[in-house]
Amino acid sequence: MTTVSHNSTTPSVSVTTASGNNPPQLVATPVPDEQRISFWPQHFGLIPQWVTLEPRVFGWMDRLCEDYCGGIWNLYTLNNGGAFMAPEPDDD
To answer: What is the pTM for the complete model shown?
Structure first.
């Protein structure tokens, strides 16, 4: 069983996978605006051409999602050392 929850009152998203008595918990924490500049080199700096990753993600999103027209993306770090980015949801 996998549970995904997002609480709008706290700045984190948690994913819990139940397995036995001690379920592991993966917690995603939004990167504050003042730390966005260091996000890419910190998490992807060992990848050659890491500086091109963000525009490539935007380009692929534009090609794959008919309704995508740019916007703000949120950056997240994970408690297991990982990181990801996700488009900010529309307020429609």
So the answer is: 0.67
DSSP conformation letters of 60-72: HHHHH-TT-----
DSSP states of 3-15:
EEEEETTTTEEEE
Query: What length is written for the chain?
Result: 92
- Structural domains for the chain: 2-87 (3.30.70.3580)
75 closest CA partner among 47, 33, 16, 17: 33
Strand 73-78 relative to strand 25-30: parallel, antiparallel, unpaired?
Answer: antiparallel
Q: Using one digit for the tens of pLDDT, what is the confidence trace for 4-47?
A: 455 444 455 555 555 567 778 999 999 999 998 888 888 888 87
